[in-house]
Amino acid sequence: MDWGALHTILGGVNKHSTSIGKIWLTVLFIFRIMILVVAAERVWGDEQDDFVCNTLQPGCKNVCYDHFFPISHIRLWALQLIFVSTPALLVAMHVAYRRHEKKRQFRKGDQKCEYKDIEEIRRQRFHIDGSLWWTYTSSIFFRLVFEAVFMYAFYFMYDGFRMPRLMKCSAWPCPNTVDCFVSRPTEKTVFTIFMIAVSSICILLNVAELCYLLAKFFLRRSKKAGNAKHQPNHENKEETKQNEMNELISDSCQNTVIGFTS
Amino acid sequence: MSWGFLCDLLSGVNKYSTGIGRIWVAVVFIFRLLVYIAAAENIWKYEHDEFECNVEQPGCENVCFDYFFPVSHIRLWALQLIVVSAPSLLVVFHVAYRENREKNHNQKLYRSPGERDGGLLCTYLISLILKSGFEVVFLVLFYKLYNGFKVPRLVKCDVRPCPNTVDCYISKPTEKMIFLYFLVATSCLCIVLNLSELTYLIFKYSLKRYLKRHNKKHR
């Protein structure tokens, strides 16, 4: 169980996302999770060992480290990524619920049901309409909120995004104000700025997706109202072609292993 | 053998669970297991090395660490995850037993081996009670062993061979405390989910039986 399992879960949701949603997912996995696992964890790996204070007083280093780093950058990022990925599960559960209902209809032999077999239901991609639209939009909203909260927490805890080389510490039992030196401050600053930049891009993508969904919703409503005025008996069938340009992303998606969509 | 085994086990249970049960599985996977592996494990990785006492006396640090941490937080956390997931095996075994029975008798004994009725419902309810029970037990254990969920910066130790009362400093106490509170919060959430599922199932099946009896009377 690791980030790969999260990838499997979210990969299943990807099928039902908009194009922007799929781009967001790609950015999340390649520029955030992969960077975290492959690079950032190594940079922060020796952080307490190589945190050196100019004193022989036992305990001073521990206390100063704890004072300046209440929660390590790397743990904060891991939590941020977990929280930001979680709202997609809401969508996965809703899709699973819809599939379950369709399977029940199919088994009952409902003539309204247009599927030929259970496999087709399993493979079917649902359009984002009705209650699924609300679930999807709420999930994007929560994603935005979590991203913003974590970015603010970061800024608040570390007074900005720069990692200083030297910190002055006077917490007990340090005898006086002692100089403490952080290991690899420049590398850490570079990675921090990178992660913040990618977070900002993700926020922008989420805002764009939200605007797109809202625009689609209002357009659909005005179309319906317009059709109802001119042809009250005409059945409005909508065909949405959303994701041709991202087919190669959707090709790599698989159904969730955990059975959310079974 | 690693956490992947637990994943497979819980994925197997997911098939026979209710909606709330599936939410419980998601919470356990994402907010407990993934957080444990991706973040928490590394915080406690060098806890013994980084535990420092203000004394040169050999053996004092070891003895003090052992005195204050009889079982490390992270080991208790891992045990809790394993023990809390184990009752789900009861359901899996029961379904396997039903399928085996059908195979041995070569006839259809049940409407569906995975359907939650009769004996399987009892097993499911027992597994829910056990899960909640174990969660509570571990939370109480955490609380009693460590005097609450706080991790102090400094502990005073006077166990032999330490010559006097010495100051010992724990590494990353704030970070450990944050993750302990996170563990407590997710445990409580899981207890709430288990109890809601229990209530929902008892209510649903009582209603079913009442309606059946009511229909029989009217006939």
Describe the structure concisely.
The complex is a heterodimer of chains A (262) and B (219). Chain A has 262 residues and is mainly α.
Care to describe what's here?
- The complex is a heterodimer of chains A (about 260) and B (about 220).
- Chain A is mainly α.
- Chain A contains nine helices and three strands.
- In chain A, β2 and β3 form a beta hairpin.
- The two termini of chain A are about 20 Å apart.
- With about 220 residues, chain B is mainly alpha-helical.
- Chain B has a single domain, classed as Up-down Bundle (de novo design (two linked rop proteins)), CATH 1.20.1440.80.
- Chain B is built from eight helices and three strands.
- In chain B, strands 1-3-2 form a three-stranded antiparallel sheet.
- In chain B, a hairpin with an 8-residue loop joins β2 and β3.
- At the A-B interface, α1, α3, α4 and α5 of A face α1, α2, β1, β3 and α8 of B.
- Chain A: One gap junction consists of a cluster of closely packed pairs of transmembrane channels, the connexons, through which materials of low MW diffuse from one cell to a neighboring cell.
- Chain A: GO terms for molecular function: gap junction channel activity.
- Chain A: It is found in: Cell junction, Gap junction; Cell membrane.
